[in-house]
Amino acid sequence: MVGSVYVAAGGDDGVRRLAEAWHRRVLADEVVSHAFSHGFHPEHTERLAAYWAEAWGGPATFSTRYRGDDTLVLRMHAGQGRHEEMDDRAVACFDQALADVEVTDERLAATLHDYFAWVVAEMAGYPESPDQVPDGLAVARWSWDGPLESV
């Protein structure tokens, strides 16, 4: 593959379609939907797409427009205890969403799967409290070869 993961995933439109497909999948899943049972931001899908796009080498929309970083994202998911089944099912929903949006390139699908499984594990790394998450964590970047050093 030539170019960034973001470009291969279809740029803003492709990443947005994937975020929408994943969100539909998790809301329909009896286990993962619990994470959304108390509601979610009306722009959740747009914010998620911006986060993924930035992580995959696209524009820094999440950091600039939404003033987000990994500290924000990790704290949002921290302090919920351990929930391995939910994490595994969220990854399965992501894999299904890849099929929903017809990501057929095997290398791209594997790279996106690896990213999502990695980021879910990162989010699960602070089960006791959001206070465990360090300040100032930039959005982690992902390449064809895995995580990049922080920018």
From TrEMBL:
Pfam families recorded: Bac_globin (PF01152)
Keyword annotations for this protein?
Heme, Iron, Metal-binding, Transport
Q: Which domain of life is it from?
A: Bacteria
User: Where does the signal sequence lie?
Assistant: none
Query: What InterPro entries does its record include?
Result: Globin-like_sf, Globin/Proto, Hemoglobin_trunc
This protein's name: Oxidoreductase
